[in-house]
Specification:
Radius of gyration: 32 Å
Oligomer: single chain
Largest sheet: 8 strands, mixed
Number of helices: 20
Number of strands: 33
Length: 646
RNA sequence: GCCGCAGUAGCUCAGUGGUAGAGCGCGUCAUUGGUAAUGACGAGGUCGGGAGUUCAAUUCUCCCUUGCGGCACCA
C-alpha cells in the first residue's frame, strides 16, 4: 500500500498501480474529468501514470499555468500525427513548446505549403474528436533506436542515440495505437482533452539541429491556448503589434523608404531625417557633457590596414570592397570605426595625463549582411553608430564603465525606456590576453554593472574573444526586449595597432580600450523607437510639432503669421491652408500623429489666439491660447529633455 | 546564404489565357465649412525584370531580382 498526501494535508492509502486519476475519481467524477495533469512529489506527472511510492499529490486543471505548456506540447504531437497521416512520407524530428505556442520540424522531400494548413487543422480536429488515449511507455534505449530505425524515423533514432546516456530508459507517448513519439512528457490523458484553441501560423525552413551545414527541415509553427478567448486575444495582440511595425509607419508617416537599387540602405525623407537629426543633436549634447571629443574618420581604408587590424582575416566576407581602375589598390569600406579611432589616438604622443581619452564618432559603417538577415531599419547594410572608444588605464576602467552606465540610463530614460537590464558576459574559451588582465577587466565591468542600479543578468563564457562586455536590453511598450547599448573591453586592438602612452614612470604602456554605444545604430534604434511609441512621437522628437489648420481662407494671413512666430520660437510648424473642411484636416493630421493641431478661424483671427488640440486628447475642448503666450508655452513643451528648464 | 510565400496606379488591395479595376491619394471646378472623410469631373499602370509554351501571357512554366515569414548569421 502507498500513502498519498493531498494538498490539504489529508492522506489516503492506495494500492500499488494506482494513478493520480484514480485518486481524483475516488474524490469525484468531475474532478477526475477536470484533472489533466498532476504534480507528484513536486514533479509534473501524467494523471494516468501510477505512483511509484508514497507521494504528495496535487491535481491540476486546464487553468493552471503548467497546463498551458502541456496544451502546447500536445498540440505539437497532434500536429505531427496529423501531418504523418496526411503525408505518410514525412519523418518527424522535434516539436517543442515556445512562447505563445509550439512548432514541429518535419523532414519530407516535397515541401508543405500554407495551403495545406486547412487540411492539417481539420485532421488535428479529427484526432481530438477521436479522443485517443495517450499512453506513456518505457523503452530500453537500444530497443527504441531499433524501433525508430525500423519504421524509418532516422532523426528520432539519431536523437535518442545522441542525447540519451547508454543504459538509460526512455519514454514514448502513443496516441492509442495509431501514433507514437519519443518524449519526456508529461502529456494530457487523451487527445480529446486538447482545447480546440489552436491555429497553425507559419511555415518556415529550419536547419536540422540549428546547424546550417545540415539539411533543412520544414517547420510548422502554431499557437495554442487553453480556450478560444485566449486564442482570440493573442491574435488581436499580433494585429496590434503589426500596426506598430516601423516599416508600415515609416511609409504611413512618410519617414523613409527602402528600394531595390540600394538593398539594405535607407532613403530618409524630410520627416524621418528630422527625427534622425533631433536624436543625433541630442546625443551630441549629452556626449559633450560626459566628456567625449567628437571626431570624423575616413570611409575607405587600404586593405593592408584591415589586414593589420585583423578584420580582413575575420570579417572579409562581410566587407564591401572598392577599387579604382587607375590604381592597383584595394580599399575596404569601413565596417566599424574602432581601428580608425586608434589611428587618432596614435597620432602624436599620448601621456597618462591624456587619459581617459574618449573619442566619439557618428560613424557611418557598411557591412555586407546576408540578404535573408535584412529587416527594415532593424538590420541594414549601411548604418551610423553612436560609436565611441575610451582609451584609459586598467585602473580607470571601473570609473569609465560607471560613467557610461549613468549616461546610458539618462539617455534611455529621456527616450521613454525605463525598463533596462544589463547582461554581463565574461571570458570565452578561445580568447586573447592573459588571465590576470581578464580578471581585472571582468571585475571592473562587474562592479560597474552592479553599481549601475540596473538588473544584472550573467552570461558566462559569452564575451568577445578580445574582452568581456556589458550588453544593455530595453523593454518596449508591448513587452518586447531589444538589445541596444553595449560596452566592451578590448585587449586585442591596442596591441595589434600599437597604441601606447607614456606613463608616470616615463615608460611606454598599452592603454585599455573600451568600445561603447548607446543607440547601437541610429537606424535600428529609430526602428525600435518608432515601434515603441507606435509612431506618436513625444513633442520634442516629432518631425512636425504643430500644424496650423485654417477653417476659411480669410484666416490664411493670420495662420502664416502665427506659423512664423512659432518657428521663431524654434518649433517645427506646418500650415494647412487647403480648401478643405476643418474635420477633414483634423482627421488627416491626427492620422499623421502630429502632437498639436492649432485651429484658426474667424474667432482666433479676431482675438489673435490659437485653438490647440492635442494628439490623443480628442474629447477635451480645444485650449484657446493667446499667440505670444502660445509660443512660449509650446517652446517649453518642445524642449529636449536635457534642455528643459525645470 | 537556406526553406516557404509574395511583387497589379503614389498607398491599400480586387481580378482575368483575348494588352486591367476599386477605395483612398493626386489635379481641376464648385463649395468658406468650427475639431476624425463636402460634391462633381479628370489624369494616372510596359500588371518587378528576362526567357519559354501559345494564334494570343498580367494570368501557365523556368531563370533572375526585390520584399515578407522563419532558419543560419550579426565584429
Amino acid at each position: 500500500m502507498l500513502d498519498i498526501t493531498l494538498p490539504d494535508g489529508s492522506k489516503r492509502e492506495v494500492e500499488q498501480g494506482t494513478s493520480p486519476f484514480d485518486v481524483a475519481e475516488s474524490i469525484s467524477k468531475s474532478l477526475a474529468k477536470r484533472s489533466i495533469l498532476a504534480r507528484v512529489n513536486g514533479e509534473l506527472w501524467d494523471v494516468k501514470r501510477p505512483f511509484e511510492g508514497d507521494s504528495t499529490l496535487e491535481l491540476l486543471d486546464i487553468k493552471s499555468p503548467e497546463a498551458l505548456d502541456l496544451v502546447r506540447h500536445d498540440a505539437a504531437h497532434v500536429l505531427a500525427q496529423a501531418v504523418q497521416e496526411l503525408f505518410p512520407d514525412t519523418q518527424v524530428t522535434i516539436g517543442p513548446v515556445i512562447d505563445d505556442g509550439f512548432f514541429y520540424d518535419f523532414a519530407r522531400k516535397e515541401g508543405f505549403s500554407t495551403d495545406d494548413f486547412a487540411a492539417i487543422e481539420k485532421k488535428m480536429n479529427e484526432i481530438i474528436d477521436a479522443d485517443l488515449p495517450i499512453n506513456r511507455e518505457v523503452w530500453a534505449k537500444d530497443d527504441a533506436i531499433a524501433h525508430f530505425k525500423k519504421i524509418g524515423e532516422k532523426y528520432k533514432a539519431q536523437i535518442i542515440d545522441d542525447i540519451i546516456p547508454p543504459g538509460e530508459d526512455i519514454t514514448l507517448y502513443s496516441h492509442a495505437d495509431q501514433w507514437s513519439d519519443l518524449c519526456r512528457g508529461p502529456h494530457l490523458p487523451s487527445t480529446g482533452k486538447l482545447p480546440k484553441a489552436f491555429k497553425l501560423m507559419k511555415l518556415a525552413g529550419a536547419y536540422w539541429r540549428g546547424d546550417s551545414n545540415n539539411e533543412m527541415l520544414q517547420r510548422i509553427y502554431g499557437t495554442a491556448w487553453a480556450n478560444e478567448k485566449d486564442l482570440k486575444a493573442h491574435l488581436m495582440r499580433l494585429e496590434e503589434a503589426e500596426k506598430r511595425d516601423h516599416r508600415k509607419l515609416g511609409n504611413a508617416l512618410d519617414l523613409f523608404h527602402l528600394q531595390d537599387a540600394a538593398q539594405g540602405q535607407v532613403f530618409w525623407h524630410p520627416k524621418g531625417w528630422t527625427l534622425y537629426r533631433v536624436l543625433m543633436d541630442y546625443m551630441r549634447r549629452v556626449q559633450d557633457r560626459y566628456g567625449y571629443r567628437e571626431i570624423k574618420t575616413p570611409q575607405l581604408m587600404d586593405r593592408s590596414f584591415w589586414e593589420k587590424s585583423g578584420h580582413w582575416g575575420k570579417y572579409r566576407e562581410n566587407m564591401f570592397i572598392s577599387s579604382i581602375d587607375q590604381e592597383d589598390k584595394v580599399l575596404a569600406v569601413k565596417p566599424m570605426n574602432c581601428p580608425c579611432h586608434v589611428q587618432v589616438f596614435n597620432h602624436g604622443q599620448k601621456s597618462y595625463r591624456d587619459l581617459p581619452l574618449r573619442l566619439a564618432e557618428f560613424g557611418s559603417c557598411h557591412r555586407y549582411e546576408p540578404s535573408g538577415a535584412l529587416h527594415g531599419l532593424m538590420r541594414v547594410r549601411a548604418f551610423t553608430q553612436d560609436d565611441a572608444h575610451i582609451f584609459c588605464t586598467e585602473d580607470q576602467i571601473t570609473d569609465e564603465v560607471k560613467r557610461f552606465c549613468d549616461m546610458l540610463r539618462e539617455v534611455y530614460a529621456a527616450l521613454g525606456f525605463d525598463d533596462v537590464t544589463v547582461k554581463f558576459s565574461d571570458r570565452p574559451e578561445t580568447r586573447v590576453g592573459s588571465d590576470e588582465v581578464w580578471d581585472k577587466a571582468e571585475n571592473s565591468l562587474r562592479v560597474a554593472a552592479e553599481a549601475s542600479g540596473l538588473e544584472v543578468v550573467y552570461n558566462p563564457g559569452d564575451g568577445a574573444f578580445y574582452g568581456p562586455k556589458l550588453d544593455f536590453v530595453v523593454k518596449d511598450a508591448i513587452g518586447r526586449e531589444w538589445q541596444t547599448g553595449t560596452i566592451q573591453a578590448d585587449f586585442n586592438l591596442p596591441e595589434r595597432l600599437d597604441a601606447e602612452y607614456v606613463g608616470e614612470d616615463g615608460a611606454k604602456h598599452r592603454p585599455a580600450m573600451l568600445h561603447r554605444a548607446i543607440f547601437g545604430s541610429f537606424e535600428r534604434f529609430l526602428g525600435i523607437l518608432i515601434e515603441n511609441v507606435a509612431g506618436a512621437f513625444p513633442m520634442w522628437l516629432a518631425p512636425v510639432q504643430v500644424v496650423i489648420a485654417t477653417i476659411m481662407q480669410d484666416a490664411d494671413d493670420y495662420a502664416l503669421e502665427a506659423a512664423a512666430e512659432l518657428r521663431k520660437a524654434g518649433l517645427r510648424v506646418e500650415v494647412d491652408l487647403r480648401n478643405e473642411k476643418i474635420n477633414y484636416k483634423v482627421r488627416e493630421h491626427s492620422h499623421q500623429k502630429v502632437p498639436i493641431i492649432a485651429v484658426v478661424g474667424r474667432q482666433e483671427m479676431d482675438d489673435r489666439t490659437l485653438a490647440l488640440r492635442r494628439f490623443g486628447d480628442a474629447k477635451g475642448r480645444p485650449e484657446v491660447v493667446e499667440l505670444a503666450a502660445c509660443c512660449e508655452k509650446l517652446r517649453a513643451e518642445a524642449a529636449p529633455p536635457d534642455l528643459r528648464e525645470t
